[in-house]
Amino acid sequence: MQIGSGPNIYEWQDSWASVPDSESARTGWAHHGVTVTESGQIITYHPGDPTMMVFDPDGSLVRTWPVDLSDAHGITLVKEGGRELLWIADNGRKRQPGIGYDYPGGETRGQVLKMDLEGNVLASLERPDLEVYREGMYSPTWVAVNEERHGGNGDVWVADGYGQSYVHRYDRSGKYISSINGEEGGAGRFDCPHAIFIDRRSSPSELYVADRANGRVQVYDLAGRYKRVFGADFLTTPSGFVTHGDLLVIAELRARLTLCGKNDEFVCYLGANDQVCNVEGWPNNKDASGNVIATSLLEAGKFNSPHGLAVDAQGNLYVAEWLIGGRFIRLGRV
């Protein structure tokens, strides 16, 4: 099945990845990111287990490794000294099937880790010592790095999307520098800055913030100065970004991908399925007793809840959805 329009046509493939069948794979509430290595391998997280998974482009599972994470919510690949590494934002808690898909009690253990592709933890970033965290939860959702290989200074940006809706900046050694929260510019306070991304389509590069609950994208320079906002007229729930050439692709949790051009202008939607978001229990379903159960409404060619998003060198897109059991879709560029 093909979706898209004009030059942006993709082949929909929703059973390409060979995720091993298990109870945890079927019952875990997938809520993770995805990234692609230079060799074309796809790295993501298991729907239910604390396990990273690596797939070949044909969907074969190459290997796995265990991680001490609640969830690999945001997965960002970087390259340092010719070596590929991962930054992972762990939001610190995960919905559990044994308690009706509620979050478990206790403290949220949000963390940001840097690891190699064998799972060795190389560094971590401390939560900033700010007043908002005296009582408020810290629950980081994404990482963006101003990589030196692209002419950057190595700064690491962290989105606290599920906590206090701040974005924090660290230097290349992990020392905290500053924070932004949307009050710096004319658009106003962030509400769930779910994903952040350094856009290198033009010079100088810019920091994009998916201001999800406000249905827009706020743009900053790489010193943290507000520049502009876009998307309020065509976005609902921006959740993640990738670029390929001049094309910007935005994952929207409410059941679609949005394509934008070089100047962030709207181009088209992919797999739009707004009506599924109005179903009780979305992104899942509820049974007659009101219990949360896996959805029965997944359709080829229509999204349910895009969350993680990655692109390979050929422009193929990889979309990890947010739902019980997960759904991992490959959109092959035609």
Plain-language structure description:
This protein is mostly beta strands. It has a single domain (2-333), classed as TolB, C-terminal domain (Neuraminidase). It contains one helix and 29 strands. It has one helix at 23-27, and strands at residues 2-5, 8-13, 29-30, 34-36, 42-45, 51-55, 61-66, 74-80, 83-90, 111-116, 121-125, 142-145, 156-160, 166-170, 176-180, 193-199, 206-211, 216-220, 226-230, 238-244, 247-252, 256-260, 266-270, 285-286, 292-293, 306-311, 317-321, 323-324, 328-333. The strands form eight sheets. It has a five-stranded antiparallel β-sheet, with no helix packed on it. Strands 4-5-6-7 form a four-stranded antiparallel β-sheet, with no helix packed on it. It is globular, with a radius of gyration of 19 Å.
Jot down its keywords.
43% strand, 1% helix, mainly beta, Neuraminidase, 334 residues, 29 strands, four-stranded antiparallel beta sheet, globular
Mean pLDDT: 97
What structural category do the secondary elements indicate?
mainly beta
* Number of separate helices: 1
Termini separation comes to 11 Å
Strand count, sense and barrel status of the largest sheet are: 5 strands, antiparallel
Classified in CATH, the superfamily is TolB, C-terminal domain
Radius of gyration (Å): 19 Å
| Residue share in β-strands | 35-45%
CATH architecture verdict: 6 Propeller
CATH class: Mainly Beta
SSE run: EEHEEEEEEEEEEEEEEEEEEEEEEEEEEE
* Helicity level: under 10%
Strand order of the largest sheet: 1-2-29-27-26
Q: State the oligomer.
A: single chain
What's the shape? globular
Given as residue ranges, the uncertain stretches (5+ residues, pLDDT < 50) are: none
- Give the total of domains: 1
**Would you tell me which CATH topology applies?**
Neuraminidase
**How many beta-strand segments?**
29
